[in-house]
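User: Hi! I'm a student and our assignment asks us to look at how structure tokens line up with a sequence. Could you show me two examples?

Assistant: Happy to help. In each example below, the sequence comes first and the structure tokens follow. Example one:
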Amino acid sequence: MSRSTSLTHIALQKFKRNFWGVFSFCFLVICVLTAIFAYALAPDNTENANQMHLSIHSKPPGFEVTMLTIPSEVETQSAFSRFFFGRKSAATEIPISDYKLESQHISITEYTLDGTQGLQKEYELSQFPEATALEDIPKQYVKTQKFLLGTDKYGRDLLSRMLIGIRISLAIGFVAVFISLVIGITLGAIAGYFGGKVDAAIMWIINVTWSIPTLLLVIAITLALGKGFWQVFIAVGLTMWVEVARVVRGQVMGVKEMQYVTAARALGYDHFRIITKHILPNAMAPVIIISAANFAGAILIESGLSFLGIGAQPPMPSWGGIIKDHYAYIILGKPYLAIIPGVAIMSLVTAFMLIGNALRDALDVKN
């Protein structure tokens, strides 16, 4: 069969004609690239973007302040570690409203929220190892810092926290969907192919798991495994395989009656080869669509767990955790602190749902 008439090519052409599907795909590509280069893009590239400045907490988007950096020795860090895990920094950043160069030290006035006279401190030239003269201190250690999305209630850069937080959302989606596909496809294929008591036993497990509310099951698994990053991945993945298994079972039960499967049995092929080489490749279209929906579901579940405090643990940035820290600010005059991560979650989930709809239309052989 020529490439122009192949089912894959036809499905791809249908997908390309779906504006929202292509738009969502491009958006997700940008999100994935942002997650990969998060620390390179983040203004605060320290580990977990956790540089706190309590004197400038809850500032609006576009806020600017002069910052003095007091350096400190840190352990040697590879470029790979710095790129993927952030810069390990022991340096102290101090928001200041004014500074003066006097003799062999710099005198600074700390920034205050209410505009009153802040504390005055002095730092010796010896505390700035790369400055050979007093005039070098402002050039190398004093800078104007702009917070494009403002600061959170701890004075951390909200943009940096959002950029690094996207890693959590995408990672939980990938790992949870992978776990659900491995378990769901395996059990669904076995139940649908062999039938009988095997099918009855697996369906009993599926029905029992299905009857438990997803969020309660995730919370139970998370509490059993402990709070943490990887525990959330496993917990979400273990609750999303049921739907995959049911769909795969139904598809396999239909496909196994096809003539080419009967021919494969007549040729003496073993069950494993028949399932993996002949049945599953022709039953995966609905699974692909479900995977997109499960991706969106995993992001929502993780955000909910972080909001409840049993997801990704501080200081690791998570969009759900950011909402948890700032939802009270909605009625305190600074709603953007909770709305920004909320819109980010909504956008990512919507993109996956639109891709799922586009894939459904593209893989529908009736259209």
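Example two works the same way, sequence first and then tokens:
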Amino acid sequence: MKRLKKQGVNLSFALIVVILAAMPLLLQVGVISASSTILFLGKCIAFAIVAMGLDLIWGYAGILSLGHGLYFALGGYAMAMYLKLQAMGGGITDFMHVGGLTELPTIWQPFQTLPGALVMLVLVPTLVSGLVGYFIFKNRVKGVYFSIISQALTWAAYSIFIALSPYTNGNVGITEIQTVLGSIRGEKNRAHMFLLFYGALILMALVYALCRFLTGRKFGKLLVAIRDGENRTYFSGYQVSRYKTFAYVLSAIIAALAGALFVNFNGSITPSQMTISYSITMVIWVAVGGRGTIIGAVIGAFVINLCEYNLSSGSLVDLWQYIIGGIFVVTILFFKGGLVGLVCEQIPAWIRRLRSRAATAREPAGQMQKGV
């Protein structure tokens, strides 16, 4: 039964990948009229990737991070800095001129080449999350206290990025950039857009495979043991802080990769991507889809963002945030397993109860006939 459920989860993910892979083809034949739909789906793929990383630590290890937008934004800024330097021919940007800089700052120099940018994209989130994880988990800080600390760190980073406007362009962020493949706008650059989209799809599949591999092995079982009984796991001889730190760092790297991918489709990155509200939205994706399943994070990210894409305009523009909040509250109160739990557990349980009641109702009638 367990193996059948696992196969069903993987088949569901494969179906999502196939549907997404068909989208550019539908645009090419005219079924989809606007290329903006493909760009939006590309951003949804990035959101699904960061949601899987968040599910790895929250769903399996019980670490509720309300500051993962920080790592998403760090990856986004790393990619945006490289792309901006490419657009400027390696020279300083307009906002650096405005800020009084006359030469490229030292902090920007590693981003002059793509290999350097990729190294920094992974290195910076690794160092930040590693330091945070080491000191917090070593001191056995957990639960709501960790969530509050993650929020505080995100707010501090947001304030720093705003204050260092000559280097980060403040509230505006880094804008007017293309992708690693060049421009993806217009009919003549559609091939670049398709290539970028399929590359994003491959990255999502790789992250899914990695998360499923880790959670299906002893490492995943230990994360669940830590979530369900950290003290018991600790006294069983396991270095709990090491496992939690590793999972947290890996989740941060995944979020940074998602941020870098997001920038390519969005064409900009701003400090708003590292706000607390943005991080909480990521948690909502995982909760609605179903935490502790990996596939639920993917489903939740797509469902919530597709709903927002279609409903957050017109008469519902002022109500959309309340709708999101309402969905989250209803999910937590009545559908703790999210959409995946609803389909895989709650609905089958309801059907079994109905069948049991129907069988019980038929039983007295059968006994009466037998007695006669």
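Here is something you could point out in your write-up. The chain has a mean pLDDT of 89.
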